[in-house]
Amino acid sequence: MVSRSVKLLLALAFSVFLTLGSFSSFGQEEHAAPVAGEKKEEFNAGKTIIHHVLDSHEFHFFNIGEHAYAIHLPIIMYSPERGVSVFSSGKFEEGKVAYGGYKLDEETNKIVAVKEDGSVDETVKAYDFSLTKNVVQMLIGAILLIVIMLNVAKKYKTTGATQAPSGFQNAIEPVITFVRDDVAKPNLHGKHDRYLPFLLSVFFFILINNILGLIPGSANVTGNIAFTAVLAVISLIVILFSTNGHFWGHIFWPPGVPFLVKLILIPVELLGVFIKPAALMIRLFANMTAGHIVILSFVSLIFIFGQMSTVAGWGFSPVSLAFSVFIYMIEILVAFIQAFIFTNLTAVFIGQAFEAGHAHDDHDPHHHGEEIFV
Amino acid sequence: MELLLPGLGIIVWTLIAFVIVLLILKKFAWKPILKSLNEREANIADSIATAKRVKAEMAQLQSENEALLAKAREERATLLKDAKETADKMVADAKNKAKTEFDKILADAQVAIQQQKNAALTDVKNQVGNLVIEVAEKVLRKELADKAQQEGYIKQLTAEVKLN
Q: Considering A61, A110, A372, B75, which has the largest number of Cβ atoms within 10 A of its Cβ?
């Protein structure tokens, strides 16, 4: 019963996002002009796009007149001097007013501590732990993932191992076997059972956030560098815990090169240990953000043309829509591909970390495998 | 630029969310799912192996059956041949036996006929002897009366005898 009501709630939440999100592309233009002045403010495509790709303290859908239609998310601030304060982001009124000693800086989109008179208080250190748009959507994604996977697991338990899969189990199972047979097994030299839960979790966590990020009006979670950084750091920790003596020997005393070259190679190799996960971080972030930016750019083109003349705006909109639909299709593909690449490269790096000495080959095709992917 | 600066809040929340997801899914999802998958794969591999074995057994059984059938056919053929030979032999034997029987009966009959013939001839000879004696007696009695008549009479008698 509980899982059913949770499902219902999630379905409801997503349908709200979907219906509201369909208005969001039309709302962009208005949003760039928060205050309806004497004349329409100049449409700044770059600013609008970056604003939509960035994190925010609310799910903002559209403005009608001066009223913003948005879901305000809770703000959680901690400062050593003032302690913890929790309040809704609606209290800031889009950065116009200060509340509880904090103010939303419109320029940097950061929350800063302020004095009584409203000026920024530099002496107070404030840490922002707010449930932002990205955080909320990521948590929804995590809950959704847990619910889906527990249901699938339950099905395996009830129907037993000998029954053919059915329903959603059918959709998940090939993906799981794909990660196991094509990602873990070829890279992990027989130790795949140990790393499979981690790899599967990474894969599905990225995948579900990629897919949720494609819903119009939703947050760009996997295109946030903090999100990818955390996953990359976790990958780095797993890689470091998997290393063996041969791995470190190879770094600190590269075999088969003259002494002086060794001196150059050591820092390069040592940096490589950290560059690999950093590449993971940047790749996922850049791919997802780029996709969103391209779609938003095509939509913005309508408004750029619209500023020249209304006819041009209407005339260009079919072209623009066709291009954004095309990029959208590619983005769906990219959502899967990037989840796969992140997982696959993590598996490759883990495999390299405990590769046996005798099996090592300097011309190993896996060695620079990460360079194949953009 | 803000795009490239990781926010502290989302770092913390992502870390918490991912670790929770990892722990829950590891214990309650991946473990049972992977176990079931492995079990099913083992089961399928097992079933295929069993099917192969059964198939091989079936093929062997079939070849055995065929061999048995061939043997049975051969046996039937020999049996038929034997039976035919026996039957032929029996017929031939019967024919031979019948023939010998027939020959024997024929021989017996001939012997009997010969005997009867001989007996009849003997009888005829005796009767001829008696007739000869009677004739001689009568001749002798007549001779005494008329010579010419006697001779004629003898001629007559001899003619009578020839008729016999």
A: A61
Q: Using CB atoms, pick whichever of B3, B6, B13 lies closest to residue A229.
A: B6
Gap between the Cα atoms of A87 and A282, Å rounded: 33
Interface of A with B in 159-178 (CB under 8 A): 160-162, 173, 176-177
DSSP string computed for A216-248: TTS--STTSHHHHHHHHHHHHHHHHHH--HHHH
Distance from CA of A357 to the nearest CA of B (A): 30
Which residues 179-198 of A are in CB contact (within 8 Å) with B? 180, 193, 196-198
Q: What is the DSSP string of A258-275?
A: -HHHHHHHHHHHHHHHHH
Closest by Cα among A89, A28, A13 to A306: A28
Cα–Cα distance for residue pair A17/A71, rounded to 1 Å? 10
pLDDT tens readout for residues B87-107: 999 999 999 999 999 999 999
pTM (2 decimals)? 0.72
Q: In angstroms, rounded to a whole number, what is the distance separating the alpha carbons of residues B33 and A63?
A: 47
